What does this fold into?
Amino acid sequence: MLIKIRKSWELPESEVLSEQSYLGRRDILKSMGIGGLIAAASGMVAPRFAGATTSDPSAHLYPVPRNEAYVGGRPLTPEDVATTYNNFYEFGSHKNIAKAAQALKIRPWTVQIDGLVEKEQTLDVDDLLSRMQLEERVYRHRCVEAWSMVVPWTGFALKDLVKLAAPTSKAKYLVMQTFEDKEVASGQKQFWYPWPYTEGLTLEEATNDLAFMVTGLYGKPLPKQSGAPLRLAVPWKYGFKQIKSIVRFTFTEERPKSFWEELNANEYGFWANVNPEVRHPRWTQATERDLRTGERIPTQMYNGYTDQVADLYKDLGKREILFR
It folds into this structure.
């Protein structure tokens, strides 16, 4: 007899409301004349944004089967909310960057793999997708600004890209960089930021089962404002670690200094693991605002993924969770 022991962050499948079910329920309430009142009360009224995903040449790959080993622990955030409330500093320092981000040209798009690897290589993103086994995973996403959402990412395990890259025994870190094109991304004209956006993980973090390269969202290619065509999802870390629109993967022996760490290491450290016990210097991290409901809910250690990642940090002190 097989007995499944659920992970700390899992809910029974019957309790995870799909986006379609949620939107269908909302339409029923609207027809009854009370949907608007509920939406207004939650403060989550948002227009559906017509992203340009239909022109993505990878559109035929979606949707893909969901890996039921990964569920978000809460109902999905509606697509029109999750894709219109975004941070993408390349296109501005505000949340409503979805329209501006449509200037991003996602083809041709190449990904460079270099540094301490057996052989440096440059791959076309569609060639990379053809080599990987795509799946859908539902993850919780927690921003350092204390808001959160639950979304169905499509992509592949980051450890599969690490395997493809074949790092040498000297490699200890994986450094990732976003594109740089000031003519397309107006935010990159703000010279006080250390462009291009750079982030990094230890190899142990990069090869953890949860680390995920994202290529799609809600059963479709990834919207430009969400980091098309390739972004990172590491759900136990704050959102600023989850770099968008990646063009380069570099394997190195030295720990990198990330974009926000270079700007203000006291507020945005390298590790950036979710910890409700360590407050941001300007606000508490004990609670978060759920974008689906607008309600504040308790934040969980490692965003609820303690069982999967705590061993990665057993030799580090408490404050590495955010600042170190």
In short: The chain is about 15% helix and 20% strand.
